[in-house]
Design a protein that fits this description.
178 residues
């Protein structure tokens, strides 16, 4: 039995969950999310808990069991607390500024880069070198943060670029002089 999949998910106050067949809808104070559960897995509402079960021990059922439970749990956390990822812009002349809903990045290219957030995602700028990506969908927050980081990945010689706040960049030694 899956150690993660067998754990029941407690539903906090203020969150309503509706399960209709394979569709799970989670509604909370911050918004609403929905998920379609893959076929062999079943989600049931028992009192104020969600129980995720699988019909057999097939390889696909086992792999989807824990995943489905975690996805439902992430949705509950998203509609109650939300998710946030923070990025830091490091480098001489590298900076970030707010422009409407989006942000404008100067990353050493000949032009500045404007990033507009998708629906449900908020971008905030702190100072001129920190970016906060927040929203209720964990996957969307991570994807937007990764796409911003991809614009100028941190390089190993001087450490310049866009990195996550808690990221450690492994530095390399430069050229050895004669």
């Amino acid at each position: 039995m899956s150690r993660i999949g067998r754990l029941p998910i407690d539903i906090p106050a203020g969150v309503t969950i509706t399960i209709e067949g394979q569709n799970v809808a989670v509604k909370g104070p911050k918004g609403e999310l929905s998920l379609t559960v893959k076929e062999p897995i079943e989600a049931k509402l028992v009192e104020n808990q969600v129980i995720v079960s699988r019909p057999d021990d097939e390889r696909e059922s086992r792999s989807l069991h824990g995943l489905t439970r975690t996805l439902i749990r992430n949705q509950i956390v998203g509609v109650t607390e939300g998710y946030q990822k923070s990025l830091q812009v490091v480098g001489t002349g590298y900076r970030v500024a707010s422009s409407g809903q989006g942000i404008e990045l100067s990353l050493g290219y000949s032009h500045s880069i404007t990033v507009e957030p998708p629906a449900g995602i908020a971008l905030a700028v702190e100072g001129n070198d920190k970016i906060h990506v927040s929203g209720i969908d964990k996957q969307a927050v991570g994807e937007v943060a990764a796409n911003i980081r991809k614009l100028r990945k941190p390089e190993p010689y001087k450490g310049k670029g866009v990195r996550y706040v808690d990221e450690q960049v492994r530095r390399k030694a430069g050229k050895a002089g004669k």
